[in-house]
From TrEMBL:
The chain crosses the membrane at residues 55-84, 96-115, 127-148, 169-194, 246-263. GO terms for biological process: transmembrane transport. It is a multi-pass membrane protein. It is found in: Cell membrane. This is Carbohydrate ABC transporter permease. One of its GO terms (cellular component) is plasma membrane. InterPro entries: MetI-like, MetI-like_sf. Residues 55-260 form the ABC transmembrane type-1 domain. The keyword Iron does not apply. It holds the Pfam family BPD_transp_1. Belongs to the binding-protein-dependent transport system permease family.
């Protein structure tokens, strides 16, 4: 138990340090005086970030991406996993299709063909370029179809006896009983879309269309925030590259930190139930 608590604290330490730096004055951060508690507490870094239209715009783009992408991911995951969960008598070529999906998860065409397909379909510089290429998360499909296969077949048979078809069986029996797995997969989809930064850099032609993770990557790695602050002495005393970047990093992680506790109780259950069968 002590070991697990220690590992948990070790994982939290970097986030706590970033939070402390974001609330500290520029001089303290530059001098390396900040560890896990703010030094010369100030909110200037957060005020600076809140006034930047690029940051606000990137957040709105990421929220739009998460909403569209998660909804599309979950809808297609359910619609694909349900028929693939049937046995060979109900779906004769079920095994073939499963292997096709597994093959696509293990092997891809490469970065250049991926980009060319998106370009030729006219998706560049649009929100759909961030959503449609990854619309079918194969790993999530495999987890959910294994969960569906673990549900008693008698439930679906009773629905057929009562006059229901496959659609009614899916939405009134399978989906309600799959809440733990669906919550887990929803968390996977949300985190994946929120944290994805590489596709935004490649597919969006202008920084104004970057999602938050792509914007933060340019800020943390490339952009000199000091040049944005200017030469105002009062600002330089309170804000620096370290404090402003720490504030933006923490704000970027905050939405997931707020959502995760509500879905965490489903996480272990959903993963366990989704991996019982092959």
């Amino acid at each position: 138990m002590t070991f697990l608590v220690g590992m948990a604290l070790l994982c939290l330490a970097p986030l706590v340090h970033v939070l402390a730096v974001s609330f500290s004055a520029s001089s303290a951060a530059k001098a390396g005086l900040v560890t896990f508690w703010p030094v010369d507490f100030t909110l200037q870094s957060y005020r600076f970030v809140a006034e930047r239209p690029e940051f606000i715009r990137s957040i709105l783009i990421s929220v739009e991406r998460v909403l569209l992408g998660t909804l599309l991911n979950m809808l297609l995951t359910v619609l694909i996993a349900y028929p693939l969960s049937k046995d060979a008598r109900s779906f004769p070529r079920r095994t073939l299709y499963v292997w096709i999906f597994v093959f696509s998860m293990l092997f891809s065409g490469g970065l250049i063909p991926w980009y060319m397909v998106i370009k030729e379909t006219g998706l560049l510089n649009s929100i759909w370029a961030l959503v449609l290429p990854g619309a079918v998360p194969v790993f999530n499909v495999i987890l959910l179809l294994n969960f569906f296969r673990g549900l008693p077949k008698e439930l679906e048979e009773s629905a057929f006896i009562d006059g229901g078809g496959y659609w009614k069986s899916l939405w009134r029996i399978y989906v309600p009983l799959s809440a733990p797995s669906l919550a887990t997969l929803t968390l996977f989809a949300m985190v994946g879309h929120w944290n994805s930064w590489f596709d935004g850099l490649i597919l969006m032609g202008t920084p104004e269309k970057y999602p938050l993770s792509s914007y933060l990557q340019t800020v943390v790695v490339q952009m000199d925030i000091q040049s944005m602050i200017g030469s105002d002495l009062a600002s330089l005393q309170q804000i620096s590259d370290q404090t402003a970047k720490a504030a933006q990093i923490f704000l970027g992680a905050l939405p997931i930190l707020l959502v995760y506790p509500f879905l965490q109780r489903y996480f272990v259950t959903g993963m366990t139930l989704g991996s019982i069968k092959e």
